[in-house]
């Protein structure tokens, strides 16, 4: 969706945080009705329910408590898995890099938000798709 088209869609402000509340942020999005789960080894273990799409850095307001975040990477190190050092919850991931041949929507610095951390959402009521991360 182009930036002009996105601006025409009704946007809502969502509030998200880790479990202990030290890491907090807000972001704007059209109404969130779906999410996705990845079957890779880390996402399965942590139960991450990701936003269906990516968010550009400018879609998020500054992250409060960013100094409490730690970073974990594995495999090809294309994804930054951030988590709160106090409670261990991963409120979001960012794209660290993409292969030169990649043609999809992810760009370095873009976010996938853990929808389980969003106050206004019931993740059990969302339509959840599956990403075959094991194949990457």
Based on DSSP secondary structure assignment, what is the total number of beta strands?
9
Describe the main β-sheet briefly: 4 strands, antiparallel
Measured distance between first and last alpha carbons: 25 Å
| SS strand fraction | 25-35%
Oligomer: single chain
Order of helices and strands: HEEEHEEEEEE
Give the fraction of residues assigned to helices: under 10%
Low-confidence stretches: none
Mean pLDDT: 91
Query: What's the tally of helices?
Result: 2
Task: Output the radius of gyration.
Answer: 14 Å
| Protein structure class | mainly beta
Widest beta sheet: strand line-up: 5-6-7-8
Tell me, what's the shape?
globular
Features:
9% helix, globular, 2 helices, 9 strands, single chain, 136 residues, four-stranded antiparallel sheet, mainly beta
Task: Describe this structure in a few short sentences.
The protein has helices spanning 3-8, 41-46, and strands at 12-17, 24-29, 34-38, 50-51, 69-72, 79-84, 92-95, 111-113, 127-131.
């Amino acid at each position: 969706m182009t930036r002009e088209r996105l601006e025409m869609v009704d946007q809502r402000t969502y509030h998200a945080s880790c479990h202990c509340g030290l890491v907090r942020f807000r972001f704007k999005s059209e109404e969130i009705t779906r999410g996705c789960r990845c079957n890779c080894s880390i996402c399965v273990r942590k139960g991450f329910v990701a936003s269906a799409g990516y968010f550009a850095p400018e879609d998020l307001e500054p992250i409060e408590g960013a100094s409490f975040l730690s970073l974990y990477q594995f495999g090809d190190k294309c994804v930054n898995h951030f988590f709160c050092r106090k409670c261990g919850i991963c409120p979001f991931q960012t794209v660290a890099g993409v292969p030169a041949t990649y043609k999809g929507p992810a760009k370095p610095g873009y976010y996938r938000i853990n929808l389980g951390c969003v106050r206004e959402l019931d993740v059990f009521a969302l339509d959840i798709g599956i990403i075959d991360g094991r194949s990457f």
